[in-house]
């Protein structure tokens, strides 16, 4: 022993406060949040450009699309488009969390931000694909209804007999104070066949997305990992879902694979093939007047939205989400199987879809050949200079 101690008090005070003080400082330093290196100017320029071109413009385009659909009081397929536009707004609002997460390869935000990012990312990714699938089913059902009504119209000898077969006039008596009046009630049995209801499918998709993202809102947290191979490497923090047992982890993984990867992929491919076939078959007959919705335009929307999802976002399911699940319990960032440049490019490609979709949808609604009565600009009336949606 190098030091001489006259008492036991001198020994403990010297050992705790002098000999091992550096060890405690090192331990506290390792448990702190990771130090961030100065930002690369190129990184700042790219982030600002992405936020200005994709995020800000995409949010504006989606809000314009939402305003136009609500102002036109549209129904049917455009109600699905309305939900997708709202989801795209949420997607663009959460993209910066992920981009910084991937660029830094560590989570630099607080626990609250981790919870919001994990829950919203799951919610938006589930909702958008199931809304597109719901739109595909709606377009297919509308096409089948139009074909059925066309066949019924051809089978009817003339227009009068067709009207009589679809409507019925029932007579009934209404008794007043002293006079019994005979009135006629016309029941139109065609009303229930003129449209396909979309309220229940839309509510069902919202429920599925909320149910799938609820565990992430509840159990997402920051996990800190100390690199064991080199002491010079900084510690890393990951935003992930924490499960208390291996059994719970396996159950959650199977649910995610089934609900977010397998089921939407199969349903999207099948419904896309059906919409393409029915769109080309629909060119050979005229849509009946009883159908309130533009069936051809609904099929166009389904085809475009399905293809856009396959091009921009399907790679995310298999290149990022599936790889994260396979590599668990090891905690990894997004796109673990790719180098940083490819990974960030795929992430940007995914979020670019929320900018491309509303832009193309607005152009499609403005085309005269689609016969869609939706406008997205506000003009002043010449009479009283008041603003009205035109």
UniProtKB/TrEMBL annotation:
Recorded topology in the membrane: Multi-pass membrane protein
UniProt entry tagged with the keyword Ion transport: no
G-protein coupled receptors family 1 profile domain segment(s): 56-361
Subcellular location: Membrane
One annotated Gene Ontology cellular component of this protein: membrane
Principal subcellular localisation of the protein: membrane
Keywords, sorted A to Z: G-protein coupled receptor, Membrane, Receptor, Transducer, Transmembrane, Transmembrane helix
Cross-referenced InterPro entries: GPCR_Rhodpsn_7TM
UniProt-recorded Gene Ontology molecular function terms: G protein-coupled receptor activity
Coiled coil: none
Protein's UniProt name: G_PROTEIN_RECEP_F1_2 domain-containing protein
Lineage, top ranks: Eukaryota, Metazoa, Ecdysozoa, Arthropoda, Hexapoda
